[in-house]
Amino acid sequence: MQKTKIYIVCPEIKVPTGGVKQLYKLAEILGRNNMDVALVHGKKGFRINWFETSVTIKYFPFLFHKINKLTRRKKAKYIFKDFFKLLFMDKSLPESDAVIIYPEVYGPDVHTLLQNRYIVYNQNCYYTFNLFPFMKKNETDTYSSSKFTGFLTVSQDSSDYLSKAFPGKKIERIGLGLNPAFSYSGKKEKIIAFMPRKLKEDVNQVYQILSDNPELKEWKWMPIDNKTEEQVAELLKKSALFLSFNFNEGFGLPPVEAMACGCYVIGYAGNAGAEYFLPEFSSRIADRNILEFTDKIKEKVTEFNQNPLSLINQGKEASYFVGTHYTLQREEADTLRAIKNLLS
To answer: How far is the C-alpha of 20 from the C-alpha of 9, rounded, in Å?
Structure first.
């Protein structure tokens, strides 16, 4: 029996981004299990270089040209530029019997791109309607088209959201697994690690309020940005605290990676994080509550200053929890089951 060809369309983002990493991981899992799969970019020669990967990559510039037209806010200014680009562009497209996997960020008209059946890998349900017109419904859109076969998604929160937004559609949740580089270390220093990409204004408020506090005099604030996975893991293994500024997340992997490394995590769950932000080993802060956030940091810094082992033991408990719930073995098994169900 001939295998179904699967193409996974991936945005061309050079900086480290969790969503892109998961699209590559999806391609790796399917390829490793004897499926005919390729990751798709538009620009010839483009590939991610901030983590190791051996996925097969195909380039379809014309498909990305069509995607870009869908997602542009100001379409008129590109008319002449597009005309000259199209003159010399490779216009080949995926085979008509292939299945396409798109991310959730391309808006309401994905069904107009190709005639192929497609799956939407929805990694953040809160991005689903970003490009939909305000207070307007079309007769047919990405999710009502007969070519749409269903969703892959990554958390219970996202699954609940999608089931309410699109009742009757197939929704397959997969559990995410952690890179083994994110492993437990009890050798903690007075380091507060965080990722500044989201809610920078909250990051700055927290820092400004606490920067002169005497309890934090010996502590270092360490932003994590533009680093490889291995570099991130090494920093987290040394850090006593990790601050989560997650906001409306489909899953929110950084706090889980920090927990795996034994950090005590304080911050926002971003909705989906409720499944791992447990009070036994972390402190969940109500979204955007700056004073609650700063009070909890002071409390845990003081606790570490007086008795480091107390916080280290809670970090060890967090590491055990995520190490047993978010495994690569589970992710692979879930992914294969989900794809089989969505293709049937």
So the answer is: 10
Question: What does the DSSP assignment read for 77-141?
Answer: GGHHHHHHHHHH-------TT-EEEEEGGG-TTGGGT-SS-EEEEES-GGGTTTTSPTT---SS-
CB atoms within 10 A of CB 204: 11
- Domain with residues 5-177+327-343, CATH architecture: 3-Layer(aba) Sandwich (3.40)
pTM of the model: 0.91
- List the structure tokens of 33: 């299990």
Phi, psi of 244 (to 5 degrees): -100, 120
As a whole number of angstroms, the distance between CA 22 and CA 16 comes to: 11
Chain centre to alpha carbon of residue 44: 25
Query: Would the pLDDT of 79 be above 80?
Result: no
Instruction: Determine the topology of domain 189-325 in CATH.
Output: Rossmann fold (3.40.50)
3-state SS track over 270-300: CEHHHHCCCCCCEEECCCCCHHHHHHHHHHH
Distance CA 87, CA 67 (A): 18
Cα(334)–Cα(173) distance, integer angstroms: 8
Give residue 95's pLDDT band: very low, low, confident or very high (50, 70, 90).
Answer: very high
Could you tell me the strand order of the sheet in which 5-9 lies?
A: 57-59, 36-41, 5-9, 99-103, 118-122, 148-153, 171-173
> What is the rounded CA–CA span in Å between residue 44 and residue 19?
21
